[in-house]
Write a structure and sequence with these properties.
It comes from Quillaja saponaria (Soap bark tree). This protein is mainly alpha-helical and about 575 residues long. Helices cover about 65% and strands about 0% of the residues.
Length: about 575
């Protein structure tokens, strides 16, 4: 009875009325982090006087760390605090980091002295870098609590057991990414313009103020939210299954899955959306659910979970393992995308960015073409593409998230392929005008030549990233959805770290005896950035082949469906495919 009352309470709360409060928090977080990270290369090279490759690696390391901390935030949310309180605490930590970052840009003693004439610029000292890195670490920790929880918390507001709401979850991811994209668009235009033309104090102070307002708005919406209680550490459950299976490794598996251990009361807190059915894959893990003679003689409602687990808990671990190869496939797309904030931005700084004689586009604002294309693609996908695809496939969402991700991979390959040809065009113009040796000279070629590579990356993200989000949320067990969202951000983290490693290796092993290098520190004109882009293209082609194999072999999460009479069916794969 108490469980039914809790269910009623959940249905009365949540829904579309909560979206403004939730989206406000995510939008301001993106405004803050993108407003800085998009133009961070300029800040590090012009204000702190870092060498180009060190600044590029600092940027990707920061992006990698900020995308790795969601694992910690998801663990706290799923295990102890719940998503609301995790988001609230993380937002406050993020706010402190933004205030510290703003002060580092405002106070002269926290930055090196400006360059004077032809003198060698003084780089930031240890103390100044400590303040910078501490501020970035606080924002990374704050992001770790916000990113995996906001997207899952928003999706939680739609009750999947309610026929009027269960189709809105997949639409929510399009809306979420659209709102995030609008926020990023404001960041790469208005905020970047303020940073370069008004000052870094205001350029960082405005996002800090916006973040404060979003925290207030998010907390005000508390009575309206649908809150799901934390159900214990998902990592502990996964480890328990693995340990139990190892301890019973010498036991024979049962021939009939119905003989495996079931305990509805034990699984109730972690299976509100339906229990997972048994699958035939990874049968060695089934040993964790085999009841031994010793255990069958015990009359206990709560077994020793380090020796005996339910089928549902075993299937949780199987689901996570099955998601692993698809997760890994997304890494190289992020590696390719990361170059927009490093070398693509450096390309833009060497090109003619004037729209009129008195106004030129800030180099950091070139990503506006990525965002506009991404937003346009999302709108086209939601309003046109899905309706056409639905008639062909019969699926409510048009195409599966696996197909959507595959399309994104193909477009990303085109993006880096095109980027290589555009870089060769830029260098040829520099050579024709005798500007190869001039690192700070503006080459007489329009910056709009870079629009195709920026736009293709935006189109790829609209397909791949949203498909990735859908995949993790849909295929993860209900009690692990914050953790699943953390896996999405972890792929971004690893992608940034792979970018750092790739830049390091190319910079080291492409160095020639005469000082030549594919990725030179000071003069991009003397490098071979086009080769670097084509290297990433080749890696992405190999990655696409890997992804096609993984998606072909992938088995969807099986859900045990409960009917009105209280009995259940194990036709979970068919049920999930209908939902997909």
């Amino acid at each position: 009875m108490e469980k039914d009352m809790n269910h009623v309470r959940r249905k009365k709360q949540g829904g579309m009325v909560t979206m403004p409060f939730i989206f406000a928090n995510e939008a301001c977080e993106k405004l803050a982090v993108v407003g800085f990270s998009t133009n961070m290369l300029s800040y590090l090279t012009t204000q702190l006087h870092m060498p180009l490759t060190k600044a590029a690696n600092t940027l990707t390391n920061f992006g990698g760390t900020a995308s790795l901390t969601p694992l910690l935030g998801a663990f706290i949310a799923d295990s102890y605090a719940g998503r609301f309180w995790t988001i609230t605490a993380a937002s406050i930590i993020y706010q402190i980091g933004m205030i510290s970052l703003t002060l580092s840009a405002v106070l002269p003693q926290l930055r090196p002295s400006p360059c004077k004439g032809d003198e060698i610029c003084q780089q930031a000292n240890g103390g100044q870098l400590t303040v910078l890195y501490a501020s970035l670490l606080l924002t990374a920790l704050g992001s770790g609590g916000i990113r995996p929880c906001v997207v899952a918390f928003g999706a939680d507001q739609f009750d999947e057991s309610d026929p009027k709401q269960n189709t809105k979850t997949w639409k929510y991811f399009n809306w979420y990414y659209f709102v995030m994209g609008v926020s990023i668009l404001v960041a790469v235009t208005v905020i970047v313009y303020i940073q370069e033309n008004v000052g870094w104090g205001w350029g960082l102070g405005i996002p800090a103020i916006a973040m404060l307002l979003s925290i207030i708005a998010f907390i005000v919406g508390y009575p309206l939210y649908r809150h799901l209680d934390p159900s214990g550490s998902p990592f502990t459950r996964l480890i328990q299954v693995a340990v139990a299976a190892y301890k019973k490794r010498k036991i024979r598996t049962v021939s009939d899955p119905k003989l495996l251990y079931q305990n509805d009361e034990l699984d109730a807190p972690i299976s509100l959306g339906g229990k997972l059915s048994h699958t035939e894959h990874m049968k060695f893990l089934d040993k964790a659910a085999v009841v031994s003679e010793e255990e069958s003689m015990k009359d206990s409602k709560t077994p020793n979970l380090w020796r005996l687990n339910t089928v549902h808990r075993v299937e949780e671990l199987k689901s996570v393992i099955r998601m692993g190869p698809i997760w890994a496939a997304g890494i190289l797309l992020i590696t390719a995308y990361a170059q927009q904030g490093t070398f693509s931005l450096q390309q833009a700084k060497t090109m003619d960015r004037h729209i009129t004689k008195s106004f030129q586009i800030p180099a950091g604002s070139m990503s506006v073409f990525t965002i506009v294309t991404m937003l346009s693609t999302i709108a086209f996908y939601d309003r046109v593409f899905i309706r056409i695809a639905r008639k062909i496939t019969g699926l409510d969402r048009g195409i599966t998230f696996l197909h959507r991700m595959g399309i994104g991979f193909v477009i990303s390959i085109l993006a880096t392929l095109v980027a290589g040809f555009i870089e060769r065009k830029r260098k040829n113009v520099a050579l024709d005008h005798g500007l190869i040796d001039h690192s700070h000279a503006i080459i007489p070629i329009s910056v709009f030549w870079l629009v195709p590579q920026y736009s293709l990356h935006g189109m790829a993200e609209a397909f791949m990233s949203i498909g990735h989000l859908e995949f993790f949320y849909d295929q993860a067990p209900e009690s692990m959805r914050s953790t699943a969202m953390a896996l999405f951000w972890t792929a971004i983290s690893v992608g940034n770290y792979v970018s750092t490693l790739l830049v390091f290796l190319v910079h080291k092993y492409s160095a020639g005896p005469n000082g030549s290098n594919w990725l030179p520190d000071n003069n991009l004109n003397k490098g071979k950035l086009d080769y670097f882009y084509w290297l990433i293209t080749l890696l992405q082609v190999l990655n696409l082949v890997y992804y096609l194999f993984c998606s072909k072999m992938y088995t969807f999460k099986p859900i045990q469906v409960h009917n009105e009479s209280g009995s259940s069916e194990a036709d979970g794969v068919l049920e999930l495919q209908n939902r997909v």
